[in-house]
Amino acid sequence: MVVVDWSKLPTELLNLISQRIDNEVDLIRFQSICSTWRASSVPNHHHILPFKFPLLQTPFFSHQIETLINIDLPFGYLSKHNFFLIKPPQQQQQQTLLRPWLIRVCQNTRGQTQLFHPLFHHYPLPRIRLVLDFNKLSVLHLGSNNFIKDHDIKTDNGKYRFPIKVVAVTCHGKKPLVAVAPAFPPQPLLLKCGDGKWKVILDMSTGFGDICLFKGWPYVVDKIGKTVMVGPDSSVHLVAEPLVGRGNKKFLAESKGDLLLADVYDPDLNDSVWIDLFKLNEKEKKWVKLTSLGDRVLFLGEVCSFSVSASDLCVAKGNCVIFSYSIICSSKSESCILDLDQGRHSPLSDYPEYSNLFWPPPKWI
């Protein structure tokens, strides 16, 4: 058997490989192989490190967007937040059933790692001393989103509007392509960092739904379910026609390689919540209704939505939706669980095997 010395791979090839890494854990593992691999990785990794992002000044309207040149605008730093399920090393998992940990991780402009609750926008976790060796732990990357931090103006300056959601894509070392869901105007926007101009994603309804990354590109859904994909050249492609007579809020999430749409209805007089679920049929360009999630658990948060199998979570069953009630009613911040088998939702605190996935960290860490 021929033994291959992987440290002898060409520097150019290693550099290209590192450009395609899109989260901190994989980059850490890449750089841990040997000194050659570490030295060959991209020094300023646009997929991970914060980069400058121009802030929009109001008032303005859709037809004025493309006249805005970002050179004279103040900026913030766009930081990437990754969502992980951290599990114990394989040998520990085989010995006993150990609870995993759901966490949101980001690096600030000073290179410091920060931990946040996965479902809530502004929810930094208490500072604790943790040593997470990602080379030994089993880590599932569940999704990512971007946030504006360390801006150079005061947040109480009413002239500037911070986006509701932001996703950014870097094409093999090029300047990032950013898709933005602004608070105003209601249409989603595109920005190719470096060219200094905004672009409106046209033909979307006046009510924004959600935005996410799927198969490496931004997908945007409006309030009536019409969905588009943004390509590398900023071109916009229809991927799903609108739904008819559906819910009030839309959320996109990837699940086992499929794109799901959660259609959330406003609470009724009894404060009951219902969610219809759909899967994208890319060939027919339509949303197909799902009757069950199987063993999957779907998480709907203020900042990102994702799904995980019940077996990976070490919980008894799937086919349920865990959500922050604030996505429906901004005055409520509790977490809830909707059991799709029983058709009712309950406080997440009533189900400790699910609520303990978030906090505190498991004892084995």
UniProtKB/TrEMBL annotation:
Q: Its domain of life?
A: Eukaryota
The record places domain KIB1-4 beta-propeller at 85-324
Q: Which gene encodes it?
A: 11417159
Any Pfam family: Beta-prop_KIB1-4
Gene Ontology biological process terms in this record: protein ubiquitination
PANTHER family xref list: F-BOX PROTEIN SKIP23
| Gene3D superfamilies documented for this protein | 1.20.1280.50
Q: What organism does the UniProt record list as the source? A: Medicago truncatula
Q: Fetch the InterPro entries from UniProt.
A: KIB1-4_b-propeller, SCF_F-box_domain
Per its record, how is this protein called by name?
A: F-box SKIP23-like protein
